[in-house]
Amino acid sequence: MHRRTGMGTNFGVGIDIEGVYRFRKLSMDSAFLHRVFTQKEQDYCRAHMSPAPHFAVRFAAKEAVVKALSSLKKTPPNYKDIEVINDENGIPFVRIHKQGFERLRITISLSHSKSQAVALAVITETPSVDS
């Protein structure tokens, strides 16, 4: 979903749901985990007794961000460049490690159970000074 507000700000929305079972089946040293998640994300997930829901919800967040970026007609970066980490209060946020995404404000909401993980991403793009 893509909208343009009356003040010239574009926004995109993305949502994704993942089955936790897919991440339980992975070896904790799989090439997939190293290709998709930063070391900081892997360390966070592995610090939990059951890392699979944490990997699943972070993957869902990356998917939601990709969908929101696509709705803004932006080519998304690689998954590993979309980092989902927590602030000092434990609130998850997204950092994109690639140029060209500086004017984006990304808000995410994550939730998971033993079997499902869901993420919602809302991205607002502020217009450039030249617009």
Describe the protein's architecture and organization:
The protein is an alpha+beta fold. It has a single domain (2-125), classed as 4'-phosphopantetheinyl transferase domain (Ribosomal Protein L22, Chain A, Alpha-Beta Complex), CATH 3.90.470. Helices cover 29% and strands 32% of the residues. It has helices at residues 21-24, 31-36, 39-46, 52-71, and strands at residues 2-4, 10-19, 82-86, 92-96, 104-112, 116-125. Strands 1-2-6-5 form a 4-stranded antiparallel beta sheet. The protein has a two-stranded antiparallel sheet with strand order 3-4. Strand 1 (2-4) and strand 2 (10-19) form a beta hairpin. The longest helix is centred in the middle third of the chain and has 20 residues, at 52-71. It is elongated, with a radius of gyration of 15 Å. The protein starts with a strand and ends in a 6-residue tail after the last strand. The model has no long low-confidence stretch (mean pLDDT 91).
CATH topology: Ribosomal Protein L22, Chain A
Q: Report the average pLDDT across residues.
A: 91
What does the overall shape look like? elongated
What is the count of structural domains?
1
Give the neighbour order of strands across the main sheet: 1-2-6-5
> Architecture, CATH level 2?
Alpha-Beta Complex
Q: What series of H and E elements makes up the topology?
A: EEHHHHEEEE
Which consecutive residue ranges, at least 5 long each, have pLDDT under 50?
none
For CATH, the homologous superfamily is named as 4'-phosphopantetheinyl transferase domain
CATH class: Alpha Beta
SS-derived structural category: alpha+beta
Cα-based radius of gyration, to the nearest Å: 15 Å
